[in-house]
Amino acid sequence: MDARSWLGLEPTHNPHRWFLPVSMGIATGARFLFGGCGLGAAIAALEGTTGRPIVWATAQYLSFAKVDSVVDIDVTIAVDGRATTQARAVAHVGGTEIITVNAALGLRDDPTELVHGKPPEVLAPDQCPVRERYGDAPDAMDSRMEQRWALPPGADQPVVLEPGRVAVWTRMPDLLEPSAASLAVLGDYVPMGISFTSDRAKSATSLDNTIRVVNTVPSEWYLLDIRVDGVRRGFGHGDIHIWAEDGTLCAIGSQSCIVRERGPDGSVRPRRAV
Can you give the pTM of this predicted structure? Predict the structure, then answer.
C-alpha cells in the first residue's frame, strides 16, 4: 500500500484539487485529523499535481478537522522552473482553512551525496520495549503503527538519551512504499518528545510541521530521533531526525507546539474544531 491509499487521499477531475475523508485511521484519539497525516496528504497532493518529488514542505496548522468531515486540498503552483517547482496546498473544510502548506519540489542531476551526523547508539527494535498507546480509541491512527522505545545498550527501560533527547523505533506495517508523505506522518512526534522529557506532565499541540526529505529508502522500522530544544512561556520547540534501520538519514523535521499542563486524569482542555 502506498501513502496515498494509506491516508485515503482521492483525486478529482481537477488535477489541482484533491479530497481527504477524515476517518479514525488518520485521526487522533480525540477524533481530530492527526497533523502529520494532514501534511502527508498535502505532500501527496502536491507531488501528484506537479509530478515532482518533495524537497521540503512546511505546514501551518490553523484549525482541526473532525472525523467524518471531508478536507478539500487545493494546489497552487507559484513558480515552475526547469528543475524546481515552488507550490502551496491549502486544506480546508468548507470555508474554514485547516492547514496551509508551502513546499519546494524537484530533482536535480547532481551526484553529490553528503550526510553529517549519525543516529544514536540504541538496541535493535526487537530488543526494545513496546511504547504503549496513550489513548483508548481502538481504531485511531496510532493503532496502525507499532512503536518501541529505543534503548541505549545496557538500559532496560525507556530513558532520556541526553537532556531533551529521546528516540523511538516506529513502523507502519500496512505502508510498504516509502515516500515523503509517509515520512511527514512519522515527523509529527516532537510533541511526544516534549511530553516524555517533561515526565509526561505536559501535553503539546503542533503549530507547524516542517519536513526536509533527504532519502526515501525502504526500511521495516524507522528510528525517530527527537530533540526538545526548549520550552518557555507555554510554547515548545524541537526537531526530529528520521533514520532507516541501516543508518540512512531519511528526513529532518522541526516543530513548534503549544504546551499545556495535563489534568490529574491526564486530560487537557477541549480544543476548537470544525
Answer: 0.94
